[in-house]
Amino acid sequence: MLPRHRIGATLAAAALVLLTGCGSGPDAGPDSGAQGGPDAPRGGASAPDAASAAKATAAFGSAKELARQVGAMELQLTRRCMVSKGFTVHPPDPAPMPADSASEAPEGRVSPTAQEAARHGYGAAPDASGDPAAPQDSTSDRPGPWAALPDAEKQRYTLAKNGAPDQLVSYETGEGKFSSPSGGCIGETRKTLYGDMTTYLRLMWLTDNGMRHEAGREAESSDAFLKAVGTWSGCMDKAGYGGMKSPTEAIKKAKDYYGGKDAGKNLDAAAVESGRKKEIAQAKADARCADSAKYDTFWRSAYQKSLTALYVKNEADLVTYQQILTGAQKKAQKMLES
Hints:
Layout: H1 4-17, H2 50-84, H3 114-120, H4 145-148, H5 151-162, E1 168-172, E2 177-181, H6 184-194, H7 197-220, H8 223-238, H9 247-256, H10 269-293, H11 295-313, H12 315-337
Helix pairs in contact: 2-6, 2-11, 2-12, 3-10, 5-6, 7-11, 7-12, 8-10, 8-11, 9-10
């Protein structure tokens, strides 16, 4: 699944025409509309036959599940490596992701839901929890043995785990470099499990990000999606918010209620409250227009078509990724049993 604001990054441009880590998430969704229909991506490949689509989708699902299992084993082996180097205190595990709430926006939607709009608008207020300048809660800062360690010891731990900053193996994705430590316990463990790290990173990126990003770009250029965004813009104009070509422009406009780029600076409580009322009013209109235009529904349909076609196109790589992960799983099991 593309993160909610991944689509927002290119929505504005589309409307004008009208690592060390990786993203992951559910890639299934409704597949409505006939092949070559109005919501098919312009310039995209024709939809594959059902048997080919099912086979390739199964290969993708198998690779993702294997990656999840092997990733958990990799973490255990990395922790064992750190213990062997004399480290007995470790950072706390990351907090689990919160379960989706009933008001969580569906995939492909940039506008807030009605519940979100009424509660906090876009979350643009300087003192809102979504403020990017607000301090972030970090698991490593929680009280406990790790937090009590001297900074020098934490730095020594990080160096032993990740290796030197320049000890990286990278894959150029076309969107930037996707990198992994080649030194330290992480680097040692991954090289042992996966072998050729450049190949592993390429296949990992393709599976976790590359196909999703390409499908998202194709969905954003689909005729039906662009038409729906135009409908949203017309609705906002009637609501008194003219000149907005896309939902991302609405989000940017909300920041202007608090001073734009200097949001929150030199604003007293009354000014913030005034801005908040304007933001919520606009967000409510945005939510109503999004519900009416249903641009996210058209996006999801086009996205799923494109994604399924990409599974078929890249099936050989998905099978290769499965093979690498299957081998890594066997190695990890032996290492953990020893």
